[in-house]
Amino acid sequence: MISTARTRRTLGFVAAAGVVALALAGCSRGGDTPSGGETDGGAAASPGITDDSLLFGISTPLTGATAGPGNCTADGALAYFGMRNAEGGIEFGDGKTRTVEIRTYDDEYNPEKAAANFQQMVADGVFAAGIGLGTPTNRAWREAAIDEGVPQVLVMTGDPIFSDQEASPVQLGLVPTYMQEGAAFGEGLVASGEEYTVAALYQNDDYGLGYWQGFLDAVEGADNVTVVKELSYEPGPASTTPNYLEPQITELAATDANVLFHAVSVVPRAIEDLTKANAIGWNPAWFLPSNTASPGGVLAPAGVTADTYPGIYAAGFAQAAAAPPFAETPEGMEYFDAIAEYAQGPDQDGKAFPHCLWSWIAAQILEEAFMNMEEPTREAFYEELRAIGGLELPFAFGPIDTTTDGPAIQTVVLQQFNGAGYANVDAVGG
Fold first, then answer.
1. What is the pLDDT of residue 39?
2. Which one of 189, 279, 305, 366 is most buried, by most CB atoms within 10 A?
3. How many domains does the chain have?
4. 377/237 same-domain check
């Protein structure tokens, strides 16, 4: 089946339309929803779905060093489904109109907590789970999700294992892979034709190694790009210590490289490293992964302006809610209204981190699958989720395609910080 662009349906008001549950229960930021139930005729319903509701779980860091983007991964979906629930719900492919209830679980970016959260989700009877942030945290319950047959979908990690249908038969990633993002920057350096010396700092895990390998593949054989030094570090408890990476920044600065490839996932570390390099007078062009490139959440706290460095580059795959024109569109206004009404993160404005918008896109992709699934089962849901092709959504740069071994979003472009937001560019320095 090939899905076409989502068409907003005009739904009649239904009595007692559900809104996103907010009452705290245990470690979850959510309310009580039936864990399963009978439906009228047809296939037996999977846990977490009744004739009038569906329960979806999100495990993500709501506290700790990555709480900023972590809260956003929940709040975009909370806002989208809160809006849709208030309109009366979503008409599923079986003809039933249901509200979608989101229950969130705080994993603090700790794999052990994420694994425990999944067991709690099973106990709570979620229909499906996903969207949450993090490679190690999502990997921590991937095999358990397979064993339990619980779809783990649209997770916010660029780890390609989540989109490998053989290795991960109930999984699907949302965002482009680390390799795709790293390659976008490498291709931008090569396309410039200018001479560049590159220093690299990356996490010694699937995240950092994936970004770095994508970059290396893209610059292989190019005579204008030279890697002069690379340093890796072990992520983990020590990476929560302030200024943990300052020695590495100082060592890389000694190379006088004019490019820094910075594959570091934790927001406070990105802020510190941007601040440190400028303080010691090292001003290379930077590559930042999409999850640590936020103008409001990273660059502004680091004191970075359009003139601080020759360029701050990131790989983009969706519009930026922080860009002024965004709020002037009908879709942008709808987004901000829903964030203001339904988001639950502290001081959430929907634009400090791009993850809020990515989560909103994820909710729209879920809705597409819900509108096409003709039976109230996890199998029917996952089948329809994996059959989406050519789905055009307002904020994504390219069509959504879930039919291949790849994430739902695969269109990646190189972007450069312009002082307010990011603008698409064809090459570094162009």
1. 54
2. 189
3. 2
4. no
